[in-house]
Here is the input.
Amino acid sequence: MVIGLGTDIVEISRIAQMIERHGDSFLKRVYTDNEIAHCQQRKHSSEAFAGRWAAKEAVMKVLGTGFVRGIGWKDIEVISEVSGKPVVLISGGAGEHAEKIGIDEILVTISHCKAYATATAIGLRDDLL
Here is the structure.
């Protein structure tokens, strides 16, 4: 059963400027070590960082909370399977809230072009549990 749906779009140049302006302090505030390592391996790392930014925003919309006290950027981690499929891992306050509202799984898709990155997330409850 679908519990929540969220989507986000971000200008890649905006994220690139934040990285250029604030460097590691920005990266370490928003992304996990795994996300940073994954994105920095990419030829166009700004696109990868922007895609993960959009995914985190989309997940917040699924949760219906935004980034409020007790829920932080790094509570949402986007990893990639070998195939490249993005997978959302949630922990901390985000994980607690997801459990509270009955979300068992969050699906996400990420896409980008030269100027924009977008992501859509769907929060699911497994009614068979």
